[in-house]
Design goal:
Helix 1 packs across helix 3. The mean pLDDT is 86. The protein is elongated, with a radius of gyration of 18 Å. The protein has a single domain, classed as Fumarate reductase/succinate dehydrogenase, transmembrane subunit (3 helical TM bundles of succinate and fumarate reductases, Up-down Bundle). It is mostly helical. It has 4 helices and no strands. Helices cover 80% and strands 0% of the residues.
């Protein structure tokens, strides 16, 4: 069995499960935020600040952020792997794909650290 070193999960099934679970978390987060915005009569900075001062909301936001990172990594990895293996063949394709994956990893880690800093004030 061959395992790709740049994949997120251990195999395709694990990646599929992570993508579906992360999609559910992101969907729940968006629906909750929409509900909060439309159900709060005096929606503004104070309501937003009060919501995000709650521990459960910070954890929910962190879970959504982690879901975005995992979902993006698996999705872009699959697109890059499929595109560069079917459209471009050879060592150039592998080098370009790895550079793109490295750039994506840097961007995702940057967004993750930045999001954690915003949520937890670290």
């Amino acid at each position: 069995m061959v395992t790709a070193a740049t994949s997120f999960g251990r195999n395709g099934l694990a990646d599929w499960v992570v993508q579906r679970a992360s999609a559910l978390v992101m969907t729940a987060y968006v629906f909750f935020l929409l509900y909060f915005i439309f159900a709060t009569p005096d929606f503004g900075y104070e309501a937003w600040k009060e919501l995000y001062s709650q521990l459960w909301m910070r954890i929910f936001s962190l879970l959504a952020l982690l879901s975005i990172v995992a979902h993006a990594w698996i999705g872009i990895w699959a697109v890059l792997t499929d595109y560069f293996t079917t459209r471009l063949m050879g060592p150039k394709a592998t080098a370009i794909r790895l550079v793109c994956q490295l750039l994506l990893a840097v961007v995702l880690v940057t967004f993750l650290v930045w999001g954690i800093e915003i949520l937890w004030g670290l």
